[in-house]
Amino acid sequence: MSDVFTLTLRCPSRAGIMHAISSFLYSHGCEVIDHRQFDDPITHTLFVRTEFTSARASTGAELAAAFDYLASGLDATYEVSDHAPQRILVMVSKLGHCLNDLIFRWRAGTLGGELVAVVSNHTDLRAMAESAGLPFHHVPIAPDTKSDAESEMLRLVDEYDADLVVLARYMQILSDQTCAALRGRAINIHHSFLPGFKGAKPYHQAHERGVKYVGATAHYVTPDLDEGPIIEQEVIRIDHTHDPRRLATVGSDAEALALSRAVRWHSERRVLMNGTSTVVFS
């Protein structure tokens, strides 16, 4: 039975790249089953995502090692991965709608990865996590214990061998050091389009301004607060009858939708970094 692999690649644009890649795959007994590419005319960068089967007894590491010579000539950054599900550690505070949605999609087999643990600075969502069979770790945070708490969080990321950390309404600002440690493998959900209503009570601010759409933004975590590369955004139309409570309810739906899509696309290796932006082969 053939094994399925995914090649993701970005490199400077030039003629002949796709011919070189397809020739490599053919010479190694591989057959393409899905291919996406985007040639960015502004950054002059080519982005590629190719799923392929290999009838030979190869591993992702073996194929990557064989591809390395070609990648060096293309000045390419690349990854060859098998279809082992990404291991996802979720961080939460008190709001449970995003965690609940992730658990539902995980159980339904549509999340794209495997939830492995939940970490929280409160205990409110312990029952939700444990009822789903997920280990729950309470890591309280105070101003004078923030550094120790983040060290414990990173220890748990290593303990569970997590590929991705999801901040599912985790209401703490991560330090620059922790953001750097999780670069490219931590996703946050923000309660509006970015830029948007920042600070406390965003839905009260939205109500006072008479907004007509409620939105949410899923983005990678960076030291620049809520300014990381955006993966997905969701909007839901509202009107003057929506008070702050109804806005918060609609907003929760938008947050859950945007976050689950971002998690799935990242887990399926459909998101490639493009400077401060992303290329998403959804």
From TrEMBL:
The active site is at D226. Gene3D superfamilies: 3.30.70.260, Formyl transferase, N-terminal domain. GO terms for molecular function: formyltetrahydrofolate deformylase activity. CDD domains: ACT_F4HF-DF, FMT_core_Formyl-FH4-Hydrolase_C. The keyword Hydrolase applies. Residues 87-263 form the Formyl transferase N-terminal domain. Its EC number is 3.5.1.10. It catalyses: (6R)-10-formyltetrahydrofolate + H2O = (6S)-5,6,7,8-tetrahydrofolate + formate + H(+). It holds the Pfam family Formyl_trans_N. It is an enzyme of class 3 (hydrolase). Keywords: Hydrolase, One-carbon metabolism, Purine biosynthesis. The keyword Nucleus does not apply. Pathway: Purine metabolism; IMP biosynthesis via de novo pathway; formate from 10-formyl-5,6,7,8-tetrahydrofolate: step 1/1. It comes from the Bacteria. Belongs to the PurU family. Catalyzes the hydrolysis of 10-formyltetrahydrofolate (formyl-FH4) to formate and tetrahydrofolate (FH4). This is Formyltetrahydrofolate deformylase. It comes from Gordonia prachuapensis.
